[in-house]
Write a structure and sequence with these properties.
Elements lengths: L6 H22 L2 H6 L3 E5 L5 E5 L2 H21 L21 H4 L3 H6 L22 H4 L3 H5 L16 H4 L3 H6 L4 E2 L34 H4 L3 H4 L4 E2 L15 E2 L11 H7 L13 E2 L2 E2 L1 H4 L15 E2 L8
Antiparallel strand pairs: 1-2, 3-5, 4-8, 6-7
Length: 315
């Protein structure tokens, strides 16, 4: 008579039988067969034997999705120590505060508190609330130790726009559009149109403000912004009424590429005597003209910025 086995020994024996069955099943089935059995598992019959129990594929995938969802939930709840928007880095340099900049950059330091950029501070810096300059130019200890100088251990956003793009993500995306100002290519910089230190951010350094008519654009686009006998009234509101200043998907950086750009201002309610589908501007039917293209490319109003000859800016 064989001695009676304990529960632990019986459990070990059952586990050994399962391992044997799995091993034999893996040997008899190829890799492809094992993949098809991903929805099966061993189940005891009750008489000491084991059988394969098949489950629907939907249950298996449901379990996988639940497990994946739990993993994503655990990741999202974990704390992050990394920063999303990081200031420029200068190897080996530390933050010295805005007062250290005052000795050399006196005029800029005097007007800088009125700028929107002066409110940008690094919360994790050693000198909390005094790192407005270094938020864009990087830590300045090595720059100060070297006695200053252009480009010496300092970041100049006027030459490298990446420091601006760290915060102005939407503008960075616009400079990647097909029609754009060549800032990324290095032929222009942000400072040509914006004053980063003064109270008016829409003012180029040493120039007039974009908000005050079109003086910012006039520095390069003199032919379009010069005085005309018959002016285009849209220029009174600024170039940005029709043009996107950073970039656009349309040629000439227009906000829209079809006649709707003009019809925003030059549309009118049609009178009771006008047939359906007819478009009148003034007392002239423009229905056939609009089918020929845009107002400025159909051979009509070619002098869109102004004319010295014709009040309707035909030429």
């Amino acid at each position: 008579m064989q001695p009676r086995k304990s529960k632990a020994e019986s459990a070990c024996g059952a586990n050994f039988k399962i391992a044997q069955l799995l091993s034999s099943k893996k040997q008899s089935a190829g890799l492809e067969d094992l993949e098809t059995r991903s929805s099966e598992q061993l189940e005891p019959k009750g008489n000491g034997a084991w059988r394969w129990q098949t489950f629907p594929k939907s249950i298996v995938w449901k379990k996988i999705l639940i497990a994946g969802g739990l993993m994503l939930f655990m990741i999202s709840c974990s704390s992050l120590t990394r920063t999303v928007l990081a200031p420029p880095e200068i190897p080996g340099a530390n933050y010295v505060g805005d007062k250290a900049c005052y000795d050399c950059h006196t005029n800029i330091s005097r007007v800088f508190p009125s700028s929107a950029h002066a409110r940008v501070h690094l919360p994790n810096a050693e000198m909390v609330g005094q790192t407005g300059c270094e938020s864009c130019h990087g830590p300045g200890s090595k720059h100060v130790a070297a006695g200053g100088g252009r480009g010496k251990f300092i970041v100049n956003p006027g030459k490298e726009p990446n420091a601006c793009f760290q915060c102005h993500l939407q503008t960075h995306a616009e400079f990647s559009l097909p029609q754009r100002h060549p800032v990324i290519e290095g032929r222009m910089n942000c400072v040509q149109c914006h004053d980063p230190h003064g109270s008016d951010i829409f003012k180029p350094a040493g120039g007039l403000a974009m908000a005050r008519l079109n003086e910012s654009c006039a520095g390069c686009h003199r032919e379009q912004t010069r005085p005309f006998v018959f002016e285009h009234e849209a220029l009174r509101e600024g170039c940005t009424v029709c043009h996107s200043p950073h970039g656009s998907i349309n040629r000439k950086m227009l906000t829209e590429s079809d006649p709707n750009l003009c019809l925003k201002c030059h549309a009118q309610n049609q009178g009771p005597g006008v047939a359906s589908g007819e478009i009148y501007i003034g007392h002239v039917s423009h229905t056939a003209y609009l089918r020929q293209g845009t107002c400025w490319s159909a051979g009509c109003h070619t002098a869109v910025h102004g004319s010295n000859v014709h009040p309707r800016m035909f030429y």
